[in-house]
Amino acid sequence: MTQPIPVNPAILRWARETAGLSIEEVVRKLNRKSIAAETVAAWEAVSASASPNYLQLETLAYTIYKRPMALFFFPEPPVEETPQQAFRTLPEQEIQRMSPRLRYLLRQAKSMQLNLYELYDYINPAQKQIVRDLKFAPNVSISKMVTTIRKYLNVELNVQVQWKSAEVAFKAWRNALEECGVFVFKEAFKNDAFSGFCLYDDRFPLIYVNNSKPDTRQIFTLFHELPHLLLGTGGVDTPLENYIDFLQGDDKQIEILCNRFAGAFLVPDEDFERRIETVAINDDTAEDLANRYANRYSVSREVILRKFYDRKLVSPQFYEQKVEQWRKEKGKSGEGGNYYLNKGVYLGERYIDLVFSRLYQNRISIEELSDYLGVKVKSVPGMEALLFRKGTTA
Length: 394
Hints:
4 domains, 4-stranded mixed beta sheet, globular
């Protein structure tokens, strides 16, 4: 079928703009020399003189804009939460620089929240719900916040330091948060500028973690985003420190609080101070000590080095040099390995078990199950096998 289709030009333009793409970028992604920028612009014009054919619309919908094709026949664009609304503490220039991939993941996360509402019949099943039970103001004492949340999660430091690796630690922290009503999902962001984000919701708050980052960075992301949720906001975790300089008022205070909280929670000051009080820390010894303490607390070397820097134990030049060096070192690939195991890691055992339980109860069809899992129907048996591989999908 090659005849033009009478789609809504306003929806075409809305889909492109919300994907963060220019007309020129759409032309490149269409990868057809016969389609010029003027043609795409004509498709979007108010009094459209042209429209895409079926194959072109299919490519635009599913491959480029990642939207349902039926949406392009709606009379008006749907109302969606914008990145500015979801991430109010992110400066406008960073919003404008958000990649199409991150914009897509934001939409995906909103869909996951809707999935949770449907699958759980609008009731979060967690007996304890941290977002409901704990509320903080931006001017809260960091130490008070750390003590309160550590007690609520019921994970003592002596348990944390026994975890054998950062991978084990991430699984444990993920489980602790999910036990308290916060849902954690992973994805390969394909963008080093962002380590994760969270979406606030009073019933189904969730955190998205960049699986391409090292496990230690993923752990930091969990506890950067958690205070965002407890302050009633969405948020983004980015290693770019200077973006905070563009914030003002409560937004700036919240971002500083979230960064400081993550470091103080994962590396409690009292224990840390006791361990370094008899150790000579300077530019010559800091790297080895950062490695040692990073392993103890299952955090990145940057977290430890920042604590040294805040205590004026290392020079600003050494700190900046090492942070830049470590961040350039290769992290996780994020996309290799077994498809089903990767999908299990992204979704988590709890969510996969939930979806299959609804299938077994005859509450959803196998087609609906594949939609909830984001896989093709033919991949369902492979996903089901994950339920019998305990310990591989955390």
